[in-house]
Amino acid sequence: GQNIDQPTEMTATEGAIVQINCTYQTSGFNGLFWYQQHAGEAPTFLSYNVLDGLEEKGRFSSFLSRSKGYSYLLLKELQMKDSASYLCAPYSGAGSYQLTFGKGTKLSVIP
Amino acid sequence: DTEVTQTPKHLVMGMTNKKSLKCEQHMGHRAMYWYKQKAKKPPELMFVYSYEKLSINESVPSRFSPECPNSSLLNLHLHALQPEDSALYLCASSQVAEYEQYFGPGTRLTVT
Question: Residues of A with CB below 8 A from B106's CB?
Answer without folding.
Answer: 42
